[in-house]
Amino acid sequence: METAPLAPRIAPLEPPFEAEIGTLLQKLTPPNAPNILALFRTLAVNPRLTERMGPLGGYLLGRSASVSLRDREIVIDRICALAGAEYEWGVHVAAFAAAAQLTREEIAAIARVPARLESLPERDRLLVRLADEMHETANISDALWRELAATWTPPQLLELILLAGWYRAIAGVCNAARVPLESWQAKFAEYS
How far apart are the C-alpha atoms of 93 and 73, rounded to whole Å? Predict the structure, then answer.
C-alpha cells in the first residue's frame, strides 16, 4: 500500500510569476521539458541563489562538459538513488536514460541499494563505485582512484567528483524541501 506523499516544506512557486522569476525559470527550463520543474520553482523561492547555481548546473548538464552523457547520468542516478531522492532520480531517468542508452535493467541495477553490479559493463561499475565512495566517505580510495585514472583524464575526474557532490546537494534539497514528484517522472517502485 502506497502512502500519500508528504506535503512540501517549501512550496514551489506557482504561476503567474513575477517577471524576473518568470525569466529565471524560463532560462533554467530545458526547451523540451513538459513543464517548469517543481525543483526549479522551489529553488526560485531564493532567486539570487538560484541564479548563481544556474551556470554550474548548466555546465555539468551541458554539451561543453568533458564527461559523456552516459557517464554523467550513471553518477547522477546512483547518487540520487543512494540519497533516496526519488524526485531528482526520476526526472533524470525520464529525461535522459534513453539518450544515455541506459536499459531498464541497467537503471534498476544502478538504483538498487546495495548495488548489484554484475549486470553492468566494467566502465559503468567504476562510476557506481565512485558514486558510492563519494556518498559514503566524501573521498575515493587509492585503489579505486587508480582504476578511474586508467579510464578518465584528470579534468574528467574532477568533473565526475564535482558531479557527485553537486547532485548530493541537489538530492538533499529535494528531500529536505520535499519537492513534489512530477507526474511524468520515473518512480523507484517501477525499477525495484
Answer: 8
Q: Please give the full DSSP string across 79-118, using - where no structure is assigned.
A: HHHHTT-HHHHHHHHHHHTTTTT--HHHHHHHHSSS--GG
Interacting residues of 120 by C-beta distance below 8 A, sequence separation 6+? 106, 109, 110, 128
Encode pLDDT of 48-70 as tens digits: 999 999 999 999 988 878 999 99
Is pTM beyond 0.85 here? yes
Identity of the residue numbered 9: R
Q: Any idea how long the chain is? A: 192
- Domains detected in the chain: 19-61 (no CATH), 69-191 (1.20.1290.10)
Give the span between the Cα atoms of 17 and 188, in whole angstroms: 31
